[in-house]
């Protein structure tokens, strides 16, 4: 009788175990799906503008202590793969391009090389990746964690209380409008080792980043954590920027012009009626965007509005 009861209990236990497996599998599947979505770079159906990616001016090269490339290189990978912006190079590529232009200006290039002024594409926006903190202990002091990231190695572990089993990263991305200097978007991202299934994440990052010169972000644990944080920030940033104008150049205020020689600010494009005021060489005027032939409608710094011949103007530098 005892054996019969034990057998029944065992059968019931096995049945309960088998019944619980689909639910566990579903939970595991949902977790894997969430982690997979976290590693997906957002894709845009249209360009949001032209952008350059630069390091913050006051940046301390915290990434060198972790043997990582500059974070701008990582963000450039996101930009290229997302198709959300046209990326213009303001780093090493720009320096090489300027050397070619110097050769062209010196007459060293072959004829019809078609390298010269007025060809370079302007950046509508500038994106700056920064680090809020790189704290290897989620419960530790953020400032000390950042110091640990800056110093790196054994000294960093000592100063920052580095615990490589609990790595976290908190980052920020900002986007500034080149023409107005307005900061049009800011997004923060955070990640920790426990957010990522390292087998899947390593495979993703290796495929997406390995051939882009930023392999350190795919091959190290702290690199993967920082990548996830920046990817979260970039995804949020793209969502914020969905309302940007289709043509940032046209949407921006008109570039100021400078008067090259004395003239008059006229009441209308035909020159009829009394002049609004005299213009002196060197004065700054601000076009409204309205034109009539060679006549431009402008405002002066006092708010006076009128018309002036474009022959008297040059773009203010």
Describe this structure in words.
This protein has 317 residues and is α+β, with helices and mostly antiparallel strands. It folds into two domains: 50-88 and 123-249, no CATH class; 253-315, SH3 type barrels, CATH 2.30.30. It contains nine helices and twelve strands. It has a five-stranded mixed beta sheet with strand order 2-1-3-4-5. The protein has a five-stranded antiparallel beta sheet with strand order 11-10-9-6-12, with no helix packed on it. A hairpin with a 5-residue loop joins strand 4 and strand 5. Helix 4 (142-151) runs antiparallel to helix 5 (153-160). The protein starts with a helix and ends with a strand. The relative contact order is 0.11.
Order of helices and strands: HEHEHEHHEEHHHHEEEEEEE
* Major sheet attributes: 5 strands, mixed
Number of domains: 2
Low-confidence spans:
1-5, 134-165
Q: What is the general shape? A: elongated
Spatial order of the strands forming the largest sheet: 2-1-3-4-5
Strand content: 15-25%
Q: Quick check: average pLDDT?
A: 73
Total strand segments: 12
**How many separate helices?**
9
- In helices, the fraction of residues equals 25-40%
Cα-based radius of gyration, to the nearest Å: 29 Å
């Amino acid at each position: 009788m005892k054996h019969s009861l034990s057998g029944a209990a065992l059968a019931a236990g096995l049945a309960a175990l088998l019944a619980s497996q689909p639910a566990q599998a579903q939970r595991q599947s949902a977790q894997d799906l969430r982690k997979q979505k976290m590693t997906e770079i957002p894709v845009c159906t249209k360009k949001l503008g032209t952008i350059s990616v630069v390091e913050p001016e006051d940046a301390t090269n915290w990434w060198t202590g972790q043997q990582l490339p500059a974070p701008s290189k990582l963000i450039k990978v996101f930009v290229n793969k997302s198709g959300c912006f046209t990326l213009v190079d303001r780093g090493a590529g720009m320096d090489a391009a300027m050397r070619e232009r110097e050769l062209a200006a010196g007459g060293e290039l072959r004829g019809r090389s078609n390298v010269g002024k007025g060809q370079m594409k302007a950046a509508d926006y500038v994106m700056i990746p920064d680090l809020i903190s790189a704290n290897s202990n989620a419960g530790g002091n953020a400032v000390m964690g950042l110091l640990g990231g800056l110093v790196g190695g054994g000294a960093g572990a000592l100063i920052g209380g580095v615990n490589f089993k609990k790595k976290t990263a908190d980052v920020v991305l900002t986007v500034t409008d080149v023409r107005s200097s307005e900061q049009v978007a800011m997004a923060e991202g955070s990640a920790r080792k426990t957010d990522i299934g390292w087998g899947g994440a390593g495979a993703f990052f290796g495929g997406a980043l390995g051939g882009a010169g930023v392999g350190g972000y795919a091959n190290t644990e702290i690199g993967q954590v920082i990548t996830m944080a920046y990817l979260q920030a970039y995804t949020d940033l793209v969502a914020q920027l969905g309302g940007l104008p289709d043509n940032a150049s046209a949407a921006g205020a008109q570039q100021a012009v400078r008067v090259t020689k004395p003239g008059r600010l006229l009441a209308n494009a035909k020159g009829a009626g009394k002049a609004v005021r005299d213009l002196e060489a060197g004065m700054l005027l601000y076009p409204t965007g309205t034109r009539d032939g060679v006549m431009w409608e402008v405002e002066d710094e006092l708010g006076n509005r009128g018309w002036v011949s474009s022959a008297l103007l040059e773009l203010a530098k």
